[in-house]
Amino acid sequence: MEKTTSLSIPRIKLGSQGLEVSRLGLGCMSMSGNYGPPKPEPEMIKLIRHAIDTGVTFLDTSDLYGPHINEILIGKAIKGIREKVQVATKFGIRFEVATKFGIRFEDGKRGICGEPAYVRACCEASLKRLDIDCIDLYYVHRIDTQLPIEVTMGELKKLVEEGKIKYIGLSEACASTIRRAHAVHPITAVQMEWSLWTRDLEEEVVPTCRELGIGIVPYSPLGRGFFSAGAKLIESLPEDDFRKSFPRFKPENFEHNKQVFEKLSLMAARKGCTPSQLALAWILHQGDDVCPIPGTTKINNFNANVGALSVILTAEDMKELESYASGDVVRAEAFEVLLAHLTNSICFSGGISAKLEGISSGLWQPLIKCVSIRGNDSSDASHLDIPKLTIHKFQELKECDISKAPISAASTSNPLR
Ligand SMILES: NC(=O)c1ccc[n+]([C@@H]2O[C@H](COP(=O)([O-])OP(=O)(O)OC[C@H]3O[C@@H](n4cnc5c(N)ncnc54)[C@H](OP(=O)(O)O)[C@@H]3O)[C@@H](O)[C@H]2O)c1
């Protein structure tokens, strides 16, 4: 059973600087790869135009998606109707051969960069690909922890003053970074993964955003498709779908995790909607300062996602839903959280353990071991109390300047507890 809606899509204010967007956005990433091969351009243009005609005008992309081709796709799709849409794009993750801007990366490896010259070059390149004069919302995709956030923000502020971007956002940033960035120039939105099974941001990030009047944009609100299809999703993933490597989707964890979808489906039947509508309704009920951006490549699925706006949940429904996917129910949570935060700080290109071994600071050694054990790679993390790891501690580690971290930190105390 699927809820449909013929209502016009409500509009909300995101942040306190005047950005107005549709109540629901459209995540465009998978149109250009990541989840299987890129989809045919004419079909994706049709989908984007359909979304805009329906009233979903907040489009989410990044220079990373494709890479680059997703921005080009959006540029083509909004030609002639630019004033109707709010374009959000991102910079900060790079993977070309790069020795420019004083940053050294190995060939083909990705890196995080927030250097002013890089920020400006990315913005100019995105404007060209999108074929627009001004980006509505420009996010730092990942925080460059080798550089004070104030430096990156200084350049973004100049871009606002020059009219190249209207509003500034951060993606995957912790509370203290959000505060520091906001002190340089108001942040309009913070984009983080937020769904029934990814809720760590509720501890610090959400309250900080609310205190500072910053909007929240949950990415992967459908659990990357898991809340739409459960076990069927895993069975149908093509070889080149990067979700295959997610610990939550690995066979040993998935057997356990699929119960979350089963419970969701039962409740959806009771509420007269689909499981994905229920998962989206849960996030929509978090408040009017929250604008989820479900991703899809299909008009039918897009329409179903819009139908989530008509699903009404009571406080009891919300509690029940939350109990299905609480921390101790979902397997591989700790690893995913850890991985997300490591990739926030460090170059990543697949072999994350190998990459980490290049880092000399003793502070990171327990993390390396922890990654290994959770990734079923090697072992020796038995002394770590993994269930007690908190996001807070990861954030602290992530924020520290690893080049200056005391070598003794890991040997004198376990920073993960
Ligand atoms: N800031 C970041 O670091 C970051 C990271 C990841 C994603 N994002 C952004 O967030 C957006 C959304 O995240 P996401 O794509 O990772 O995950 P998601 O929105 O949780 O799920 C997308 C998946 O769900 C499927 N789906 C969507 N609606 C459906 C429906 N009604 N019925 C059945 N299946 C449905 C899609 O398949 P179909 O295509 O077949 O519909 C796709 O496989 C991305 O497009 C991107 O813009 C940002």
From TrEMBL:
<keyword id="KW-0521">NADP</keyword>
<dbReference type="InterPro" id="IPR050791">
    <property type="entry name" value="Aldo-Keto_reductase"/>
</dbReference>
<protein>
    <submittedName>
        <fullName>Aldo-keto reductase 2</fullName>
    </submittedName>
</protein>
<dbReference type="GO" id="GO:0005737">
    <property type="term" value="C:cytoplasm"/>
</dbReference>
<keyword id="KW-0560">Oxidoreductase</keyword>
<dbReference type="InterPro" id="IPR023210">
    <property type="entry name" value="NADP_OxRdtase_dom"/>
</dbReference>
<dbReference type="Pfam" id="PF00248">
    <property type="entry name" value="Aldo_ket_red"/>
</dbReference>
<dbReference type="InterPro" id="IPR036812">
    <property type="entry name" value="NAD(P)_OxRdtase_dom_sf"/>
</dbReference>
<dbReference type="GO" id="GO:0016491">
    <property type="term" value="F:oxidoreductase activity"/>
</dbReference>
<feature type="domain" description="NADP-dependent oxidoreductase">
    <location>
        <begin position="23"/>
        <end position="323"/>
    </location>
</feature>
